[in-house]
Amino acid sequence: MSRNLPKYKSKASRFEYCCVRGFYVFPLMIIGGLAMIGVLIMTSIFGLINFFTILFAGQRNETYYDWILKRTQWTAHVNMYLAGATDERPACTPC
User: Fold this and answer.
1) How many Cβ atoms sit within 10 Å of the Cβ of residue 90?
2) What is the enclosing helix (H) or strand (E) of 85?
3) Domain ranges of the chain
4) Is the pLDDT of residue 11 over 70?
5) What are the tens digits of pLDDT across the range 48-88?
6) Is 91 helix (H, G, I), strand (E, B) or coil?
7) Distance CA 45, CA 56 (A)
8) Which end of the chain has fewer CB atoms at under 10 Å, N or C?
9) Would the pTM count as exceeding 0.70?
10) Listed residue (27, 20, 17) closest to 93, CA to CA
11) H or E segment and range at residue 47
């Protein structure tokens, strides 16, 4: 039995894991942390608007939904990078 498995990517080297990731985390935490406050506020507002739109109109606003989805994915990517679960660097800001 042969399976079609995706190609294996080599893991990051110790240099990248310790030094490069260490230097990349600081701007990510500072810039991303400040951006995250605004993102959290906007996501809450858009989520509330979308809730009432779905409640009364029966359909969601795709613009707000896409915005919330992208920001949630960015947050998950940053958290996984900071936890060391992925080697792919996220963008510094969610925009």
Assistant:
1) 20
2) none
3) 28-95
4) no
5) 999 999 999 999 889 888 988 888 888 888 888 877 787 78
6) coil
7) 17
8) N
9) no
10) 27
11) helix 21-57
